[in-house]
């Protein structure tokens, strides 16, 4: 079961992971974009963690606050993650804690938010290319009776495989679409930071 404290721990750990990965994420983004994806993610996660300071209440409240904080960050990634977090919060409702099946519903709602806000589809070379298949695998594993930790590990493996697959795609959304041919051969930076979120979550759950 995941409570509000665990969500705060995830945000803090993900912030650390983004701090370490910022330079590599910026390099990936510089291939066909503005070269600031890592910096923008870092700004967003700092806002999220600051907003969580002393947070009480439910997971939904923590996610809603996080979504509003991230959504205020400039660029395209802030509104995308902001929408995803708020959609997940709606599913969580006022539950005091989240189990595997509800987490799967929340992730599915978050992916729908990414699709809607980004007007993107699989194959467009965006974070959706990691989030959607990883969420699908996680949800299927939970539905099949796997414990949340084992299902999460399957989601991570799916995320990592999907991330590698983005290298063969040409960007069709965002600023990178202007240099679509140049983007082929490199993984998508948004997909890379999304994969890092799955990896961070799995690391935390393995120590809980």
Task: Describe the 3D structure.
There is one protein chain. This protein has 208 residues and is mainly alpha-helical. The chain is built from 9 helices and no strands. It has helices at 4-30, 37-52, 59-71, 77-92, 100-118, 128-143, 148-165, 180-183, 189-205. α1 packs antiparallel against α2 (37-52) and α5 (100-118) packs antiparallel against α6 (128-143). The chain starts with a helix and ends with a helix. 50% of the residues are buried. The mean pLDDT is 93.
What is the number of strand segments?
Answer: 0
Query: What overall form do the CA principal axes indicate?
Result: globular
Mean pLDDT: 93
Low-confidence stretches: none
Q: What's the helix count?
A: 9
Alpha-beta content class = mainly alpha
The helix fraction, in percent, is over 70%
User: Compute the gyration radius: what is it?
Assistant: 16 Å
* Share of residues in strands: under 5%
């Amino acid at each position: 079961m995941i409570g509000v404290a665990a969500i705060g721990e995830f945000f803090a750990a993900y912030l650390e992971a983004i701090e370490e990965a910022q330079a590599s994420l910026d390099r990936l983004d510089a291939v066909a974009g503005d070269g600031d994806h890592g910096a923008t993610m870092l700004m967003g996660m700092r806002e999220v963690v600051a907003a969580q300071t002393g947070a009480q209440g439910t997971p939904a409240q923590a996610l809603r606050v996080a979504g509003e904080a991230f959504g205020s960050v400039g660029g395209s990634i802030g509104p995308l993650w902001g929408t995803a977090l708020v959609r997940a919060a709606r599913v969580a409702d006022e539950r005091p804690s989240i189990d595997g099946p509800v987490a799967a519903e929340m992730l599915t709602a978050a992916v729908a938010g990414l699709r809607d806000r980004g007007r993107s589809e699989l194959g467009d070379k965006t974070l959706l290319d990691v989030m959607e298949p990883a969420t699908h695998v996680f949800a299927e594993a939970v539905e099949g009776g796997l414990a949340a930790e084992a299902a999460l590990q399957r989601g991570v493996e799916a995320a990592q495989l999907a991330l590698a697959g983005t290298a063969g795609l040409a960007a069709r959304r965002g600023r990178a679409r202007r240099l679509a041919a140049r983007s082929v051969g490199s993984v998508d930076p948004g997909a890379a930071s999304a994969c890092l979120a799955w990896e961070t979550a799995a690391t935390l759950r393995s120590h809980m």
